[in-house]
Design a protein that fits this description.
Mean pLDDT: 86
Helix content: 25-40%
Low-confidence stretches: 377-397
CATH class of the largest domain: Alpha Beta
Shape: elongated
Order of helices and strands: HHEEEEEEEEEEHEHEEHEEHEHEEHE
CATH topology of the largest domain: Rossmann fold
Distance between the termini: 24 Å
Number of domains: 4
Length: about 400
């Protein structure tokens, strides 16, 4: 294939040949022939010296989180019978709604059987899918007249998971949420029998174990275990009309990912629900949720009726939405379940509920959750390496 310079040279050579022939100008004829010969030699050069390269592509780390900078490493091997000329690798990096970028890497000549490596950085500002490739090797002649291209690695897709914060889950009696959970625990009645202790002022007389007290010098009361939170359902409102702009939608994704990840890390039975009939449960809820949230787009379909999670014990039902006027907020208010505590996370307005979280910024989300739980610390973390199935990109030999 001729470059722009090669095409211009060929055209000039042909014109010089024609003019020299018509008017009998030997010098023009020689110049035209030189241009044409140079183009032919350039085409032969890039064909003969084209490197026979195979490539493998690897991503580091294997899972990317929004805001991280990854690295794409290319493992190269030359299989040709002669030493290659210097060449260039070109790989297209594309994201949705973002102008494509082409990564270009210059490679020095390689001897037969030689292995080499090259790489480039891959910044990720937002969640989503990043498409890499195809990887093309380009060979040019020394004068830049001709070039040869060959695809040596196919297209691979890298999943960029949303940012997550590791949050402390509520503890009974701690913070406003913990006190609310204590009230609900009492409504459910005592848990399993734990043991006996000495009676103190304020204990309920009906908790006294009279048989055990008769064999002791003191009055003894029965103690029961009080179950903490055992279940957590996170509901993400994907309706674009619930948010003022795209910023609120993206903050809602970060909040949802953080809550699901934190609940699973705390050992709670975790569930994630959003529009389009997505209802994730089971041991892989956290990983599957991150896959969904990495790709999710605004969806105007209604959440519909939210059914009760059939699990036992106290549970949290957390709705992440734009405001208290959204359809998702109305849907969650219709739930009547004495074992569930409903929490609203609003991204576009300050929460006015007694048990609510404001998320107009990521910092406010973290601080508001801490205040609600009376927690002493909250720390930001990257997504676990096994959370998203983002395989190392494999090249094609």
């Amino acid at each position: 294939m001729l470059t722009r310079q090669g095409t211009s040279g060929l055209a000039a050579g042909i014109i010089a040949l024609v003019v020299g022939r018509v008017f009998g100008v030997v010098e023009l004829f020689i110049i035209g022939a030189a241009f044409v010969v140079a183009v032919v030699l350039a085409l032969v050069f890039v064909h003969v010296r084209r490197p026979n390269i195979s490539a493998l592509r690897w991503m580091h780390p294997t899972v990317l989180v929004a805001g991280d900078t990854g690295r794409v490493d290319l493992q190269l091997e030359h299989h040709g019978n002669v030493r290659s000329t210097s060449f260039e690798l070109a790989e297209r990096v594309s994201r949705a709604n973002v102008t494509d970028h082409v990564a270009r890497l210059s490679i020095a000549p390689l001897s037969r059987g030689t292995r080499s490596s090259a790489g480039y950085q891959l910044p990720t500002t937002t969640r989503g899918l990043v498409r890499l490739g195809p990887l093309v090797v380009e060979t040019r002649d020394p004068l830049g007249i001709a070039r040869s291209t060959k695809t040596i690695a196919d297209i691979d897709t890298v999943t960029v998971a949303p940012k997550t914060f590791l949050l402390d889950m509520p503890v009974l009696g701690q913070g406003a949420l913990g006190r609310q959970l204590v009230v609900q625990a009492r409504r459910l009645g005592p848990g399993e029998f734990h043991g006996l202790r000495t009676y103190v002022d304020g204990d309920e007389p009906r908790s006294i174990d009279w048989k055990a007290s008769a064999r002791s010098e003191d009055l003894l009361v029965k103690e029961y275990t009080v179950e903490g939170v055992r279940r957590c359902t996170v509901v993400f409102d994907a309706d674009p009309s619930s948010y003022l702009d795209g910023g609120g939608f993206e903050r809602a994704i970060t909040a949802s990912a953080s809550l699901v990840h934190s609940a699973e890390q705390a050992g709670l039975t975790t569930r994630f629900v959003t529009a389009g009939g997505i209802d994730l449960r089971g041991p892989e809820t956290g990983a599957n949720t991150l896959r969904v949230l990495a790709r999710i787009e605004p969806d105007g379909s209604e959440l519909g009726m939210l059914d009760r999670d059939p699990g036992e014990g106290l549970g949290l039902m957390i709705l992440v939405t734009g405001s208290h006027r959204s359809g998702g907020w109305r849907a969650i208010q219709a739930i009547v379940d004495p074992t569930l505590t409903v929490i609203g996370v609003t991204t576009d307005e300050r929460s006015t509920a007694n048990i609510g979280v404001s998320s107009r910024t990521e910092e406010e989300f973290v601080d508001s959750w801490r205040a609600l739980n009376g927690a002493s610390s909250t720390r930001a973390v990257s997504t676990p390496t096994d959370a998203v199935d983002s395989r190392p990109a494999a090249g094609v030999r």
